Amino acid sequence: MRHPQTDRLSRRAMAFVLAGGRGSRLKELTDLRAKPAVYFGGKTRIIDFALSNAFNSGIRKMAVATQYKAHSLIRHLQRGWTFFRAERNEYLDILPASQRVSENKWYMGTADAVTQNIDIVDSYGVDFIVVLAGDHVYKMDYEVMLREHVESGADVTIGCLTVPRMDATAFGVMKIDEAKRVLEFLEKPKDPPGMPGDPDHALASMGIYVFSWPFLRDLLIRDAEDPNSSHDFGTDLIPEIVKNGRAMAHFFTDSAVCTGASPKPYWRDVGTIDAFHQANIDLTDFIPELDIYDTDWPIWTYGEIVPPAKFIHDEDGRRGSAISSMVSGACIISGTEVRESLLFTGVRTHSYSMLDRVVALPYAQVNRHARLSSVVLDRGVDVPAGLVVGEDPVEDARWFRVSEGGVVLITQPMLDARAAALGT
């Protein structure tokens, strides 16, 4: 349910986005960038989804806490998210771990990232804080969650996903009563509790929390003084509130933004090579579950100024074509057959090559006679002529990263090591 702009709680809230994690399960894709800065969907970065949700929900005060290899992320925010105007009381602050509290103290946990910036949050003059993970892909109206938080009188409201019970072993899981009050918060339990009336499903935390700022501020100060705390929301603060306060669950289905031909709520943790590859390839479906063409709930990002994509050559075996694929601006498909693939900005492919289920990050180049199947190409890689990947798993594993699901990740250092070993 949408509310008038003058009545929106989001105007009294700020979004604090936790974007400091590496995302080690993405392997070499995060060697040079944090997980929130990883590319997704042809033009965007993963963090754009959390920030766009906040902006579209009406939140105009945001902060992004960074830590691990943050340059790529900071540069993206500086280029793509500079449209906030201070004279309209709009702000986006980038908060790198900068030893503000102590010369030897970086962010020690998710809660500590907020604690070290209490003075900055105070300067916003907000009533509510929406704590967000910056590394998930979804569409959600935080205004709905804010209203539920206020109406329930909660100390914390936790965004939750309904998942098959045994799939919840990788999440923080909540046991709730019929009024959605959280009775237990269990971190990655081996035997997750089922939901009331639905024992086959469990409630998993999305890493989204709504607090009143005065309540959270006091809690953070007490937590900072606790030598036994790891200063983490999921490990320390949320269990403390569940035990001694009032924690409420908010169902993602109640605030998910569903648009286009697919009515299903969409949320993905693209934290593995397989999940990242599949979520990108899914966008090429005839009716994808995630509608990135929706102009009512757009995903804002850095709009690089580039020329249109171009397809050239039209002869047997050398035809520039793309079937069931997404091809971004500045791509040149020169005599290449592209199928079920997603090509980011500036990808160049050359004659007699073939791409099948390939996710090619910006400015990758595929030279002549290459054949790639179920591949992720890192930004700027130069695939040598004649390279065949995706047909011989043993050979692929000699040189490249092969995931559990058989997706091959190719980076430039891998190609360079292969060339050196083969003397090419």
TrEMBL record:
- E.C. number, please? 2.7.7.27
Q: Which InterPro entries match?
A: ADP-Glc_PPase (IPR011831), ADP_Glu_pyroP_CS (IPR005836), GlgC_bac (IPR023049), GlmU/GlgC-like_hexapep (IPR056818), NTP_transferase_dom (IPR005835), Nucleotide-diphossugar_trans (IPR029044), Trimer_LpxA-like_sf (IPR011004)
Q: Which SUPFAM superfamilies match?
A: Nucleotide-diphospho-sugar transferases (SSF53448), Trimeric LpxA-like enzymes (SSF51161)
Query: Which terms are listed as keywords in the entry?
Result: ATP-binding, Carbohydrate metabolism, Glycogen biosynthesis, Glycogen metabolism, Nucleotide-binding, Nucleotidyltransferase, Transferase
Q: What class of enzyme is it?
A: transferase
Its domain of life? Bacteria
Biological process terms from the Gene Ontology for this record are:
glycogen biosynthetic process
The UniProt catalytic activity note for this protein reads: alpha-D-glucose 1-phosphate + ATP + H(+) = ADP-alpha-D-glucose + diphosphate
Q: In which pathway does it act?
A: Glycan biosynthesis; glycogen biosynthesis
- The site annotation (Could play a key role in the communication between the regulatory and the substrate sites) covers Q67, W106
Q: Which residues bind alpha-D-glucose 1-phosphate?
A: Y107, G172, E187, K188, S205
Q: What residue stretches are annotated with the Glucose-1-phosphate adenylyltransferase/Bifunctional protein GlmU-like C-terminal hexapeptide domain?
A: 307-410
Task: Describe its assembly.
Answer: Homotetramer.
NCBIfam families documented for this protein = glgC, PRK00725.1
The family annotation for this protein states: Belongs to the bacterial/plant glucose-1-phosphate adenylyltransferase family.
Q: What is this protein called?
A: Glucose-1-phosphate adenylyltransferase
Q: Which organism encodes this protein?
A: Frigidibacter mobilis
Name of the gene this protein is made from: glgC
